[in-house]
Write a structure and sequence with these properties.
The protein is mostly helical and 177 residues long. It has helices at residues 5-36, 41-77, 87-90, 92-123, 131-171. It is built from five helices and no strands. Helix 1 (5-36) runs antiparallel to helix 5.
Length: 177
């Protein structure tokens, strides 16, 4: 069976999104994060903020590309009739696909938390307004946000690896769930 151009394009886009998301997460976690400890804190904050701003654009692009390319793959393969109705929930293929969709939704929620809740807290500047207690309070909020971003990012990397393994089980078998 030969692949159609839609299958090939969707496959490349899907793998590109995976490479950007997982590869970028690994680089941010294991390369940029540790490297920041070797520069002064003010510079580390600027480097972290600028690189995270750029990486978030790639993350959201990849997260948007996953369902688009995934749906293109699913419908171009012509197997959707095998997952109609309750078969989606009762077959290993359908359950694995559903697991991937649920985990993708977790990535989206975590991304929204990082982007719209924690990142604004990190962008606050410790200014002299409100005196020393105001600065100390803002610094405490920023440090808490940094810890949460780090924890959520590590969780997201783990989830992304699980999704890749589930996807491989679909590509080379019948799913594993």
């Amino acid at each position: 069976m030969t692949a159609t151009w839609v299958q090939v394009l969707a496959g490349y886009l899907h793998l590109l999104a995976v490479a950007v998301y997982v590869g970028g997460s690994i680089a941010m976690e294991f390369v940029l994060g540790p490297a920041q400890s070797y520069v002064p804190p003010a510079q580390a904050q600027v480097i972290g903020q600028r690189s995270a701003d750029r990486f978030l654009v790639l993350v959201w692009g990849a997260l948007a590309l996953f369902p688009i390319s995934g749906l293109l793959l699913f419908f171009s393969l012509g197997d959707q009739h095998t997952l109609s109705g309750m078969q989606f929930f009762t077959t290993r293929y359908g359950q694995t696909l559903l697991g991937m969709i649920v985990l993708w939704a977790v990535l989206v929620v975590n991304g929204a938390i990082i982007t719209f809740v924690l990142r604004p807290r990190l962008a606050q500047r410790a200014s002299a307004q409100g005196g020393g207690s105001g600065v100390a309070q803002r610094l405490e909020v920023m440090q808490s946000a940094v810890k949460w971003v780090s924890h959520i990012s590590r969780i997201d990397l783990g989830i992304a690896v699980v999704i890749v393994l589930l996807g491989a089980s679909l590509a080379y078998g019948d799913g594993i769930l």
